[in-house]
Amino acid sequence: MNGPAKQKSSFKNAVQAVKNYPVVLIFLGLLAIFSVLYSQQFLSPINLTATLRQFVTLMLFALGPSIVMVLGSMDLSFIGIWMLGSILLWLLSPIIGPVALLVIPILGVATGFIVGVIHTKGRIPSFILTLSLLITYWGLTVVLAGGYPRSIPGYGFITARLVPRVPTPFFLSIPIVLVAVFISLRTRLGVYFSAIGSNEEGARLAGIDVDKYKILAFTISGAFTGVGSVILFKHLGGSAAVEFNLNNVVRPLVAIILGGTPLVGGSGGPHRTILGVLTFAVLYRGLHLSPLRPELIDLVVGLVLIVSIILSSRGTRMRGVDVT
Amino acid sequence: MNERAGTPILNVRSVSKTFGGVVRALDDVSLEVYPNEIVGVVGENGAGKTTLMKILVGVYPPDQGEWAYRGVKVPFPKNPKEAARKGISIVYQEKGVVPSLRVHQFLFLGNEDRYVGRTGLQTDRIKAHAREILKELHVQCDVDDFMHELPLSTQKMVEIAKAILSVRVEQDDENTQSVIILDEPTAPLTIEERKELLDEISGMKENTSFIFVTHIMQEVMECMDRVVVLRDGKLVGHYDMATDQVTEEDLTRVIVGKEILEHQPGAVSATARNAGVVLEAEGLAKKGSYYDISFELHRGECLGLFGPAGSGKSELIRTLAGLDGFDRGTLSIMGKEAKNREPAHIRLSRGVGYFSGDTGNELLHDWSIAKNISILNIAKVIGKIFRIIRFNAEKRMAERIVERLRIRAPNVSTPVSALSGGSKQKVTVGKWFERSPQILLLEDPTIGIDVGSRQDIFATILDMKGRGISMILVSDDSREYSTLCDSIVLMRQGKVQEIISAERLKEVVEA
Amino acid sequence: MSDKAMNQRRFFPSLGRYATTSTIMPIVATVVVIVVFQILNPAFLSYQGIVTIAYSMSYFLIAACGLTLVIMMGSFDFSVVSVMKLAALLCVMYIGKLGLLVIPFALAICAAIGFVNGVLFAKLKVPSFMATLGISVVIDGIALVLSKGFLMMMNHPGFRSIAVTFILGMPSIFYWAIGTWILCTSIAVITPFGRRTYAIGGNPKAVAISGVNVARHRIVVFVLSSLLAGLAGVLYMSQLGGGSVKIGSDMMIPLFASVVAGGTSLKGGVGGPQRTLLGVIIITWIQSGLLMVGAGRDIQVVVLGIIAIIMTIATTERGKLMRTIVK
User: Fold this and answer.
1) What is the pLDDT of residues C251-306, one digit of tens each?
2) For residue C310, what are the β-bridge partners?
3) Chain A residues with CB-CB distance to B95 below 8 A
4) Residues B479, B482, B484, B485, Cα dihedral to 10°
5) Which of B167, C88, C105, C210 has the most crowded CB, counting CB atoms within 10 A?
């Protein structure tokens, strides 16, 4: 074809890759710093296990929202689906047995669908909508739980140790993550989501039914969160929680933004979020090994959030778009 | 070369369309497109060009009309996909590009059906086909490039390729000729990019026909095989550019209507030339928009920046308003030099107001007439001691304006969203009348509104001029220049050609 | 005022005309709520009942007024609750060292936080909900660090008297709240500043051309919001007199629900503190009422979440959301 010859050396490819994924630098940098500072504890097998555990938790929470963020929207309902799903499992498990596990993905899909419809047809900003939903689900959880966290017996196969040092949920989560990455990179859906996030009007002009795909995105997000929660409830201790912790909401968001998915969407997705989660997990573990008090660590996480948002909003600033 | 033998690909006849039972957008318009040609469609804003194009691609149906595709009568398309099946597709003026996608993804956006396999999108096949079409159309880019990385003219070329693709996808025969509508494709481009794009498009004539909607006379003269002129919804002229000896001035006259160019006496302010200079531009330049602009604005004078689209006049007036910056040169307002990047509110404090006919950007729709007027004139309605808003004063101010401009509304508490287009425009003019800045920049002040409102607005603007307010006008409507301006800066391709007095406008345009 | 006149003229409700819905609905809702709960619990409208409600409503109203200003402007302030908590904490911790000076001290810090919010949003172009969310996380962290191990008691009668002095049968915090509400409503309705705030919410581009320094105005509004949140926190602590600060981030929903329930639309440009009073009444009455009939915190939250969603839908005029960022 006409055009400049594209014979890139592999070095140039590597440089290009790093430029596209700056978080890799941060990740490697953190690895280096913590390995040097706390080499004994950081590089220990215990820490590896802990990091992987953290990775699984964050990854499964962040997966759904990272798809929605490509669209330029926000999905905060994931914690709600996890909490409500867990308590429903506790309720239904004694009645219908292991089949009760299906309740959680069903809840996720239904939630995502409803959110999608209300968002597109009712024109409610996704942030407020999913936040309200999250709080509502939390309330419902507390009601159903009678106010106390409930332990869910059984389902030990989810966490039964197969490989030493590596939590089984890590293996279980791999296919889920791969499906998400597949959708994002190799299907029409992924392209359409990026298009809508990048220029909704342009996507519409190209004949894309924007409303339909938005609803689809939220539904898929709910589905992933639902399926992920099946693993998570056991991974996090085999119980249904009733405590609302803002950190659970914030940390996956930090991971997504760190990974390089812009707040306003248009690019990025699960494949980038993997890197973001990894980096965050390393950061978190490293901070824990440091003499910082736990409260200070949360503070640092908040600061990281702000800094990464400022950096990621650079694109919006340059485009001169008016922000609300 | 210009035989019109053979059947036209596209033949629409007697198309009419009325909106809301009142606005006659199109009245018995007919159009043919033959293979291997570029047909220009020209006309002022509101002439009906966009409506016609939207009907052709199926955005909405006409009230009347017939369509023949390759000689066979067919119904009008009901949506863009059907239009593609009838061989016609459009490249929109703006917002058609999705910046974050790669070229191959964008090219096939919406048309991936044939490329879905069991393992997802068959990206290799897509890229291969993408390369083919880019090669065929001589587009200089790689299929893996991101759209936002490409220069604007290349982006447009990719958009054209996409339009051609979307037609081919719907046809069974790969060799069918498409008709691609280009809606002012060179509008966002710089002068150099424009030339490149036009060359490329001319080169594509062998396989594709184009309907080229434009304002830029130069493009019409250089590229088109045939030209069709619309005015006020009617077809007022069509010419074969090779055989008919038609000049730019002939066309302009047909587009505008000859009588309009008569300069209205009495609009000239006799003292204009001797009054003090309120604004002076020297060597102003902004890369890609305008170069070496120098002129003076005197008190009580109305200066028109006149030129076809692409002349840089819109960018220039926006720079003067503080909405954009400039790269070189100096600008002095009321004797003081203005910085090259100043936000609008600071320009206003220097005495420069800006008024755009695009009422979407000017008014607060849910607010009442009174509030819209007072937001700009708040100092006049607040109390002396307590600086709070006095509603009576606000109401009276608005009532004065409503009366002066003959705004049709039940009362001043009516929300402006309930007003007609002309009345909305009057509210905007009214608020600036009340504000009376020393310098008022007007962009398209009477765009798309009815004749009666237009007259009322002209009267008010002339009134302001009489009070000593200096103005600069940019418009696509020649009537405004001849009615309002004292002097005119003729611009072309970003440069000042000449500064003339308004009486000479008719001569210059016709010469 | 002219808008209200217009609303009354369009009394016949057509679904979706937010002007009618958001004026009539809050009034109707208030009446319904009062009647229902009075029936369920006769002690509802007793003197004790009213005082209790005043205690729970007053600091809430003050914070809601601040949030209303931000929402009127078309933005969002998620940090209101965290700032409240911080202000309350600062009072308890430093009253020993600073005496009553702790109040301006806490308020100054709150104003600074508001300033940071404003800069992040107006200058660095971070979407407001994200910026304030991040800030709230940081503040929560700081609050946690500061309060570690402290179970604070306060022994400063002067400080307590700010909120708890009884005048004409009502605690002084009630008058603080009403006074703040009157002030905010006045600002919104009859000052140029208020007009500009609405205007930015309605059409930021038109306002810029009208000579308003939009960025600076936005920052000021965020400072106000945080200041009022701080005031709410100070008064809350004065009312409480010590102990653990029971403000959690889940308070964000009732707060937001009150603003929206009153009829201030998320898209900005409409509503205002005058409406928020009604919204706060509805929400706090529902909360207290639910408590009195024995419903736990959890059900309250569910109910409020649903209300928030419904009211947002009702007040968002279809097809007119002008934000480019919100998708």
Assistant:
1) 887 898 889 888 787 777 778 898 899 889 888 877 777 776 666 666 777 777 77
2) none
3) 199, 201-202, 205
4) 140
5) C88
Query: CA-to-CA distance for A246 and A79, rounded, in angstroms?
Result: 9
Do the domains spanning B10-256 and B259-351+439-445+467-511 agree at the CATH topology level? yes
Domain interval for residue A150: 26-312
Classify domain C21-33+44-315 at the CATH topology level. ABC transporter involved in vitamin B12 uptake, BtuC (1.10.3470)
Q: Amino acid letter at B7?
A: T
Domains of chain C, residue spans: 21-33+44-315
Q: Find where tokens 């191990």 sit.
A: C149
**Rg value, chain B, Cα:** 25
Asked if A250 lies within 8 A of C133 by C-beta distance, the reply is yes
Contact A139/C at CB under 8 A: yes
Number of Cβ within 10 Å of residue A31's Cβ equals 17
Nearest to C218 by CA among C139, C300, C320, C123: C123
From residue A31, alpha-carbon distances to A26, A51, A296, C265 in Å are 8, 12, 21, 47
Q: Which residue has the higher pLDDT, A67 or B86?
A: A67
Query: Which of A242-251, B177-186, B246-255 has the least mean pLDDT?
Result: B246-255
Q: How many CB atoms lie within 10 A of CB B55?
A: 26
When divided into structural domains, chain A yields a total of 1
Please tell me whether residue B212 adopts helix, strand or coil conformation: strand
Distance from the Cα of C320 to chain B's closest Cα (Å) equals 10
User: Which of A216, B346, A249 is CA-nearest to residue C250?
Assistant: A249
CATH number of the domain bearing residue A116? 1.10.3470
Can you spell out the DSSP letters for B218-236? HHHHHH-SEEEEEETTEEE
Residue A303 burial by CB count (10 A; 0-12/13-18/19+): exposed, middle or buried?
middle
User: Tens digits of per-residue pLDDT, C171-196?
Assistant: 888 999 999 999 999 999 889 999 99
Q: What is the DSSP letter of B422?
A: H
In chain C, which among 244-303 make CB contacts under 8 A with chain B?
269-270
Task: Count the neighbouring beta carbons within 10 Å of the beta carbon of residue C236.
Answer: 25
pLDDT over threshold 80, residue C10: no
With respect to residue A55, please indicate whether it lies within any of the assigned structural domains.
Answer: yes
Write the CA distances from B448 to B260, B314, B424, B475, integer angstroms.
17, 17, 12, 12
Domain B259-351+439-445+467-511, CATH = 3.40.50.300
- B364, B370, B414 ranked by CB distance to C206: nearest: B364
Q: For helices B369-376 and C192-202, what crossing angle results, to 10°?
A: 110
ipTM entry:
0.80
Q: Which residues contact B396 (CB under 8 A, 6 or more apart)?
A: none
Q: If you count residue pairs, one on A and one on B, with CB atoms under 8 Å apart, how many are there?
A: 76
Q: Which chains touch A (3 or more CB pairs under 8 A)?
A: B, C
Structural contact between residues A207 and B163, judged by C-beta atoms closer than 8 angstroms: no
Asked if the model's pLDDT at residue B501 lies above 50, the reply is yes
Q: What's the pTM value of the predicted model, to 2 decimals? A: 0.80
What is the spatial distance between Cα B353 and Cα B441, in angstroms, rounded to a whole number?
6
Chain C contact partners (≥3 CB pairs within 8 A): A, B
Residue C95, both tokens? 């009253």
Give B155's DSSP letter. Answer: H
Q: Do B96 and A202 touch (CB under 8 A)?
A: yes
Which residues contact residue C212 at a Cβ distance below 8 angstroms, ignoring those fewer than 6 apart?
Answer: B345, C196, C199, C200
Name every chain B residue with its beta carbon within 8 A of the beta carbon of C186. 388
C206 and chain A in contact, CB less than 8 A: no
Taking domain B10-256, whether its CATH number is 3.40.50.360 is answered by no
Whether residue B118 lies within 8 A of chain A, CB to CB, comes out as: no
Task: Say if residues B170 and B84 touch (Cβ distance below 8 Å).
Answer: yes
CB under 8 Å to A250, separation ≥6 — which residues? A301, A302, A305, C133, C137
